[in-house]
Each structure stands twice: as structure tokens, then as C-alpha cells.
């Protein structure tokens, strides 16, 4: 297996066969499901009188439509309640492990699987959610899939997929104070574009990535999809193994030693051949903020919103649309832009280390008058751990609301929504039109610490001014 990338090795190990279409039939080791994309898939199984082939390889939770303030059942939203009941019944019928609200294990699907050790190196993972690429941080190959593909995995534990090319993205050097994993991935997407990764898997590497924690690596891999890549991954190393050891579903005893040996063997070979290699210097990355309606429309916080002349011809139409929708003037600073809502959470930045870092900057400060600010833990476990450290008290003292676990204001499928043309400073992953629940609502993506700075000052702020 010399000259092979991790992607090649994992793909080969999970190939069941080649279909007449030329696609690979790929075995899926772990299938994660939630309440939004699974009801129709289960209905398709019922219509065909099919069972779930390997229920022990499927794990369910609820996250997208879950309210983060009042979680009393039945939910006020009747459609949300129907989706909850549908998943509860389907999991019972097919004997699928289900982490419901109050189980102590509920949360955003891409937070709970890693924290329980369900996500492991060398796995193939699928979920009916775009940001399944998160799990690649462990050296897994993880795909977001559509509802009909959810059906296919439930029924056959396989997917029909085209093999991807592999682009190695190296980031080397030390990040400056105030610059985080979120800034790194926004900088990469800004540079390569939202379509730059189409047809590729992204292998994230370099000394900067090697020095990152697992939670930081998850932030990077989470947004691979926003750069057009089908998946993103980091080769497993000691950081990965230290994170996994002792977790609920991680191998134990002798099995652990065997597992680590196997995981080391699937790392990309030192002489691996890539379809493309791109390199970044960490020292050149600044706190980054999106100004437009795609995650690729980002700038350093101290830069000006680009003028049409500074934008490539192919991107100008989207830029014109963004200026109008966001109510921004080209050539003006993003810094100082007034914010209405500040949100810390999501599968990108709702983990314990995110909340710890944000709390450091919130401590002793106050949310500006007229700003609604709230913090949503990515899982029930994260919430309990944060409360044990007193992070909830720090946030509440600063004027942030402290909520129950869920996807919350990352998207508009629960009660946490923007109103009118409110502008949101968000630690989530998408700034599309209407993404946060209002047809006129505007979203600026940034790191959790930058969200705190915006909440306290009431305007977009360069957090480096606080250092």
C-alpha cells in the first residue's frame, strides 16, 4: 500500500464491488441518523417491506428541530413533534440505539459520536447531514448523504459512490494570538472558493494541524463541505489516540493496542501521491469574518469589503447579490458593523473547548444593550461539563442566555430564528440567504471568541484589540 493516501486505503478496505455504473459500492461502518432526514427513509423501507440490515451500526439522536429553551413534550411546533415521534417509533421498531432528550447523551449528531468514541480512524461514516465531514478529523472518511441514500444505508449498509481525487492542504507555522481553527478554515475556503473542492477529498496536514486539538481539527473538517469537498480528513496520530482512549465505544485492553496498530497503518504513506497540493502559512491568517452569502465571501476583520473590481469575473454576480442582500457597501470596513444577535454553538463550534475559550473573553464583560446573545452547548455532555466548570455562570453574568443542547440558530428548523433583517454574528457554518430563519436575516460567520467581542461591543470587533 505504498504511495497511497489514507483516503485510498480506507476506500479500498471498504469496497464491496464495482457497479455497472462504474461507481463503487462502499460498505458504511457507522450510520448516524437524526429526526429530519430519516422519517422519509424509514417510510421507503416500510413501502418495500425491508428491515434495517445492521441496526447495531446505526445510532440516532435528535438535534435539528429540538427547542433549546422549553423542551417540554409535546413540542409547540406540531411538525417537530411529528418528526420526534416518527424517529422514536422507527428506532423502537428496528432496535436502533437512540439518544433522546434527557438521556444524558443527546446532542448534535456530529458532537455526540466523537465524544462517545463512536467515531474512529479508518471508518466509513454516513449521515443525512451536510457536515458529516466533521468526523474526518479522526482519519475517517465521512459523507453527508441525501434521504434516498439514508434509505440505502439502512437497507444495505452500503452506498454507491464515485471515487474522489485527493487534495492535500498543508497549513504550516504558528497561529497568532486571537486566530483559531475557524479562521483557518474560513481562510482556506476564501482562497480556494466554495467550488474549489468539487470532486475532491481534502487531506488537511502540516505543522499547524498537527498542533491542533481534536476539537479544533473537527472545526476544520466540519467546513470541508463549504469549500465544495465531499469530505475532509486529518491523518490519525497520538492526539487522536489520546482523545479516544477510555471513551465509551473505544476499544479496551489488548483490543486498544491492536486498534492503534491498525490505525497507524492507514495513515497516508510518506510517499503518497496526491492529485493536488496547496500550502498555507499560518502566520498570514487573521481573524476572519464572512461579509456575503457564501462561506467563501470572507475577509480578515481589519480588511475592507472587496469591490467588484477586486473579485474574479466568475464571482461577480454572486458578489452583487451579496452587496444588496447584506446591505453592505463595497470598499467599506466590516469592522464596526452593528450586530443584533450573537450565537455561539453548532456542530462547528459548540464543543467544550469552544465554550471555554469564549468564556475567557466573556468573563468580567457585559453584552451591549440591544444585543441578544446566547450560548448553546453541542450536546448534553458538553452542557454538563461546562456547568461543572462554571462556564454557564460566566456567560449568564455577562448577559448571554444559556440554553439546552441542539443545533439551535445554525439553521431555521427550531424556534431560534432571526427576525426581519437582523444581523447575526454566528459561530456556525453557513451564511446563506434565510439560513437563520428569516428571509431577510443576515449572517456573519466567525470564531466563538469573535462572537463574544461582537456581543460585548455591539459591533464587529477585532478580538486582537483585547489581547
UniProtKB/TrEMBL annotation:
Cofactor: [4Fe-4S] cluster
Function, in words: Catalyzes the isomerization between 2-isopropylmalate and 3-isopropylmalate, via the formation of 2-isopropylmaleate.
Keywords of this entry: 4Fe-4S, Amino-acid biosynthesis, Branched-chain amino acid biosynthesis, Iron, Iron-sulfur, Isomerase, Leucine biosynthesis, Lyase, Metal-binding
NCBIfam families associated with the record: leuC (TIGR00170), PRK05478.1 (NF004016), PRK12466.1 (NF009116)
Coiled coil: none
Annotated metabolic or biological route of this protein: Amino-acid biosynthesis; L-leucine biosynthesis; L-leucine from 3-methyl-2-oxobutanoate: step 2/4
Substrates-to-products reaction catalysed: (2R,3S)-3-isopropylmalate = (2S)-2-isopropylmalate
EC number assigned by the record: 4.2.1.33
Highest classification ranks of the organism: Bacteria, Bacillati, Cyanobacteriota, Cyanophyceae, Oscillatoriophycideae
Entry binding sites for [4Fe-4S] cluster: 347, 407, 410
Protein name (Swiss-Prot/TrEMBL): 3-isopropylmalate dehydratase large subunit
